[in-house]
Amino acid sequence: MEKKTLRDIEVRGKRVFVRVDFNVPLDGEKITDDTRIRAALPTIQELRQKGARIILASHLGRPKGQVVPGLSLRPIAKRLEELLGGPVFFSEDSVGAGALANVMKLREGDVLLLENVRFHSGEEKNDRELAAEFAKLADLYVNDAFGAAHRAHATTEGIAHFLPGVAGLLMERELSVMGAALAHPERPFAAIIGGAKVSDKIAVIENLLAKVDRLLIGGGMANTFLAAQGYALGKSLVESDRIQVARELIDQARTMGKELLLPVDLVLATAFAPDAPARIGEIDDVKADEMALDIGPKTSQLYAKAVITAKTVIWNGPMGVFEMERFAAGTNAVAQAMAEVQGTTIIGGGDSVAAVEKAGLAERMTHISTGGGASLEFLEGKTLPGVAALQSR
Ligand code: ADP
Ligand code: MG
């Protein structure tokens, strides 16, 4: 990796400001999914073992610069104590004299969690003064919040202008696994792109098309590609202002000699509802009152084969409205195929990750990205500001 990581620095006795992504789903004070907290454990444990004085910072939800008691990180400190099997101190303010006093009490290996950094309006504005205030608390900066790395905020970017910054272990893994797949993939290299809209994913399709051997398109966005080929899609979600782009991408794939796979059959329903009567139809057989809510079984089979015979596969975006059981088969078929790949499999995108977890196949993937928006921007080939600000080797 081009950036320095936790492995490259000496931390004993140092005050280390660690930006983590503890933006977990809450039901009142109850954490309904602690995946993100667990994902930060390797970095925290490494720092403890090495005798750092650890200051953890995160955002939670969207308090918009106000103190919102329901978005306090206190419940997360409790959960973190259970996971670490040791005390986690809590600082009610994340900057200023109170925060500094709490930091100064830390001994080697101690862990302090700061209150929600977005309680300060300067956080999301990447305010220079606020970043300097955060920096005053520490000697070193570690960014382990891959899920927030596509945002230039005071604790994800600004602070790195005042303290030497390196990547944490989670950040390192995200960047190295996805970076290696994009830079020197074992071939055949396939990408599966789905989800609701083409407009969300044009940049990722363009970037990946240049690198992959096969591109599989599914989900709502496939409709726009089919419309570009002249098919009538009834009431399906079609972005008419993106048909031209879809046509250009199809041409581009042909010119570059890439395999571009589009659905050959669809699951069609007359309403967007879990119990809507559904049937399977060919792409040239969509009635005016029908909408495509999943790829059909023939397409699932074709896609599964294209995935299983690949050595590197990246997936972003479900193949259908997988939240409804009736329209989840295509997404599940792709998830199953990915689990059988003899090679590298990477999933990015919040809904795709949820689908794989729901199918019980998460353990069988090489890498499941913890960053929805961040992984999408990374796959688009963009530089993430939270990464750019870290020290290079
Ligand atoms: P990710 O979070 O993995 O990047 P997206 O957010 O782009 O994925 O897309 C996920 C959403 O796309 C899901 O809510 C799903 O219901 C929707 N979707 C998939 N296929 C269709 C379709 N054929 N019609 C309408 N919505 C769809
Ligand atoms: Mg999504």
Automatic annotation (TrEMBL):
One of its GO terms (molecular function) is ATP binding. GO terms for cellular component: cytosol. It catalyses: (2R)-3-phosphoglycerate + ATP = (2R)-3-phospho-glyceroyl phosphate + ADP. (2R)-3-phosphoglycerate binds at residues 36, 118, 151. Its EC number is 2.7.2.3. InterPro entries: Phosphoglycerate_kinase, Phosphoglycerate_kinase_CS, Phosphoglycerate_kinase_N, Phosphoglycerate_kinase_sf. It comes from the Bacteria. Transmembrane segments: none annotated. GO terms for biological process: gluconeogenesis; glycolytic process. Gene3D superfamilies: Phosphoglycerate kinase, N-terminal domain. Pathway: Carbohydrate degradation; glycolysis; pyruvate from D-glyceraldehyde 3-phosphate: step 2/5. HAMAP family: Phosphoglyc_kinase. Belongs to the phosphoglycerate kinase family. This is Phosphoglycerate kinase.
